[in-house]
TrEMBL record:
PROSITE patterns: C_TYPE_LECTIN_1, C_TYPE_LECTIN_2. InterPro entries: C-type_lectin-like, C-type_lectin-like/link_sf, C-type_lectin_CS, CTDL_fold. This is C-type lectin domain-containing protein. It comes from Labrus bergylta. SMART domains: CLECT (SM00034). Pfam families: Lectin_C. Keywords: Disulfide bond. Residues 49-166 form the C-type lectin domain.
């Protein structure tokens, strides 16, 4: 998908079953609407579409998981949760630079007897590597990271990694 005309407004990423939606002021309605680029390359801006905003920021200062959580909550919203394949692919596209660590912190934490998102989202989607059992009852590696290969890993919370805020 090409989003050249939006390059000054938003970064567009092509993922399966996802349209590039950009929030722009609607001059006629004095409100916000979504511009959508269809597969045929045409744009629709006159109709009112519901859409979600998923704005990820990769921080290139290495921090422990707790430091990353605190930083995200102070400067953005939180460490990101990845609630779908689409969200995972969007996050994955943001960390493919050489300067980014092999894995990055996400808002996944093992507390009590289960993994959970620190923002309270339910854990309905999972991306652990196939056959991985280590995450089921971690003794030390109780924080979640997204790898450049696209899967989740449980990792030592004291390790300093880059991280993704939203």
């Amino acid at each position: 998908m090409a989003c050249d005309i939006f390059s000054r407004l938003e970064k567009c990423v092509s993922v399966p079953f996802f349209r590039c939606a950009v929030q722009t002021p609607s001059l006629a309605l004095n409100a916000f609407t979504a511009l959508i680029m269809w597969e045929n390359g045409l744009y629709s801006s006159l109709l009112d579409y519901g859409f979600f905003c998923f704005n990820l920021m990769v921080d290139e200062v290495k921090k422990t998981w707790e430091e990353a959580l605190e930083h995200c909550r102070e400067t953005h919203t939180n460490l990101t949760s990845l609630n779908s394949e689409t969200e995972r692919l969007l996050a994955l596209s943001e960390i493919q630079h050489d300067r980014i660590t092999k894995r990055v912190w996400i808002g996944l934490r093992f507390l009590g007897d289960r993994w959970l998102w620190v923002n309270g989202d339910p854990l309905v989607y999972e991306a652990w590597p196939e056959g991985d059992q280590e995450h089921q009852c971690p003794l030390r590696k109780r924080c979640g990271a997204l790898t450049k290969e696209g899967h989740w890993e449980n990792w030592d919370c004291e390790e300093k990694l880059h991280f993704i805020c939203y």
